[in-house]
Design a protein that fits this description.
Length: 275
């Protein structure tokens, strides 16, 4: 049975591949992205497929714009079945040297952005008798990595938010899920990997971390592989709260549950070559 799916951040990467798969299955797509060229290209692609869609160029921090987008989607399609929050930015660097104004922007996009799109559509899901809310998080939302303190904190916040409001929404048959990839072979990390200045006491270790991350990304899960897992979650009749899309995230989370902390820390530091 076809469904109407709202997804943010759909102009590239995993979001784009998810949209392609859903459209090929006959689902209706509504979404937005700040990338105007990406939105225009995707509109043409969906038109060529004969897919039902409604796409806009919109910034996730524009909360009034999100409400207007919601109203237009509901007017056009009458209802929405699933909402996927996929917008997010990375953040890399030693905590001591972090620009907290930039950190605040990370939280505004990653956490409040997810909150805004979910909050906008919850009333219609509740009145329709149910639906799904799916949040893109990360492995570091359960297992923090060094030099990613702000990014990890934003992903921990997403998990805490979703795990909290699930109790409020379950009486209305609204299911929730969190998706937690480790690495996906996109340019996401490359955008944020900036070495600390030469005088920084963290520069050498941060450099080794970046080199190791760049090495790992070569064999990481592809956007298509990750998208298949995400689509499986979207189509699942009964959502599981925490969902991994790759072996690495599943493996590390398993170790995080069963091993003493000092052993987990040793494995992590060795894995990222920053012991």
């Amino acid at each position: 049975m076809s469904q109407t799916v709202v997804i943010t951040g759909l102009a590239q990467g995993m979001g784009l591949e998810v949209v392609r798969m859903l459209a090929q299955s006959g689902d209706t797509i509504a979404g937005f992205d700040v990338d105007a060229d990406g939105i225009s290209s995707l509109q043409k692609e969906l038109d060529a497929m004969g897919a039902r869609h409604f796409l806009e160029t919109l910034d996730i921090t524009d909360r009034k714009g999100i409400l207007k987008f919601r109203d237009r989607v509901l007017e056009k399609f009458n209802r929405v079945d699933t909402v996927v929050s996929n917008v997010g930015i990375g953040f890399f660097g030693p905590f001591e040297e972090t620009d907290l104004e930039k950190a605040l922007k990370c939280f505004e996009i990653n956490v409040i952005g997810a909150a805004a799109i979910f909050q906008a559509f919850i009333p219609s899901l509740r009145k329709a008798g149910g639906g799904k809310l799916i949040a893109m998080s990360s492995l570091v939302g359960q297992l923090p990595f060094p030099f990613e303190s702000i990014y990890s904190a934003s992903k921990f916040a997403i998990s805490g938010m979703v795990e909290s409001f699930q109790y409020e929404l379950s009486p209305f048959n609204i299911q929730v899920a969190i998706i937690e990839p480790a690495q996906v072979s996109t340019n996401f990390a490359a955008k944020i990997h900036v070495l600390p200045p030469e005088e920084s006491p963290y520069r050498e270790r941060a450099g080794r971390f970046i080199d190791r991350d760049n090495e790992l990304i070569k064999t990481a899960t592809t956007p298509i592989q990750a998208a298949k897992r995400i689509v499986d979650v979207i189509n699942s009749p009964k959502l599981k709260l925490h969902n991994q899309v790759d072996f690495m995230s599943s493996f590390f989370l398993f170790l995080n549950k069963v091993l003493p902390k000092f052993i987990r820390d040793m494995i992590l530091l060795n894995h990222m070559n920053i012991k």
